[in-house]
TrEMBL record:
The chain crosses the membrane at residues 7-30, 42-65, 127-144. It comes from the Eukaryota. Its EC number is 4.2.1.134. This is Very-long-chain (3R)-3-hydroxyacyl-CoA dehydratase. Catalyzes the third of the four reactions of the long-chain fatty acids elongation cycle. This endoplasmic reticulum-bound enzymatic process, allows the addition of two carbons to the chain of long- and very long-chain fatty acids/VLCFAs per cycle. This enzyme catalyzes the dehydration of the 3-hydroxyacyl-CoA intermediate into trans-2,3-enoyl-CoA, within each cycle of fatty acid elongation. Thereby, it participates to the production of VLCFAs of different chain lengths that are involved in multiple biological processes as precursors of membrane lipids and lipid mediators. Keywords: Endoplasmic reticulum, Fatty acid biosynthesis, Fatty acid metabolism, Lipid biosynthesis, Lipid metabolism, Lyase, Membrane, Transmembrane, Transmembrane helix. The keyword Lipid metabolism applies. Pathway: Lipid metabolism; fatty acid biosynthesis. It comes from Thryothorus ludovicianus. GO terms for cellular component: endoplasmic reticulum membrane.
Length: 178
């Protein structure tokens, strides 16, 4: 139990460091370069974002093997939708990577995750700081719907590029073309 708790603490710490780096980098870049920083958000932080999201797949495993007592379905849906949007929609279309919606989406994801992983780390040590607990459970109320809207908008923005470039498409032979 102690070893598993320590492992989860280290996992939360790694995720906290990654998401904090992304979040801080985004804010500093925006304060330094202004609106110009929004267009190349993916190019400046995309690698760390992809690593953090891939690492989050372990959360499903943590729940399945029973070392984390969170509910599986909500966490599975959150991680799956993030992986699909990040890797299938944004990463596969270079034209989408420069859109402002990517910056907004990354900002929302990382704001939620910095608070969540901070709360998780402290909770694993038995520390429940009331303002952080309130923020962890309240921040998701406005930010999750905004995140869903941003994901939907990112998908809508990417659709013309998928259609024009034929990404993930297969050309069918003559009798089946319609």
């Amino acid at each position: 139990s102690f070893i598993m708790n320590m492992y989860l603490f280290v996992y939360d710490l790694m995720q906290f460091c990654g998401h904090s780096w992304i979040f801080t980098n985004m804010i500093i870049r925006f304060m330094t370069f202004g609106k110009d920083s929004l267009a190349d958000t993916f190019h400046s932080i995309g690698l760390v974002m992809r690593l953090c999201q891939l690492l989050s797949v372990l959360e499903i495993l943590h729940i399945l093997i029973g070392i984390d007592k969170s509910c599986l379905l909500p966490r599975f849906l959150q991680i799956t939708e993030r992986i699909i949007v990040l890797f299938v929609v944004i990463n596969s279309q270079e034209e989408v990577q420069g859109k402002y919606v990517v910056c907004v989406l990354f900002f929302l994801w990382n704001l939620l995750d910095v608070v969540r992983y901070t709360y998780n780390m402290l909770a694993r040590m038995g520390i429940y700081y009331l303002p952080l607990t309130w923020l962890n459970f309240s921040l998701c109320i406005p930010l999750y719907p905004l995140s869903v809207l941003a994901k939907g908008f990112a998908i809508c923005v990417s659709l013309p590029y998928f259609e024009s470039f034929g990404t993930y498409s297969i050309k069918l032979p003559f009798p089946f073309t319609f």
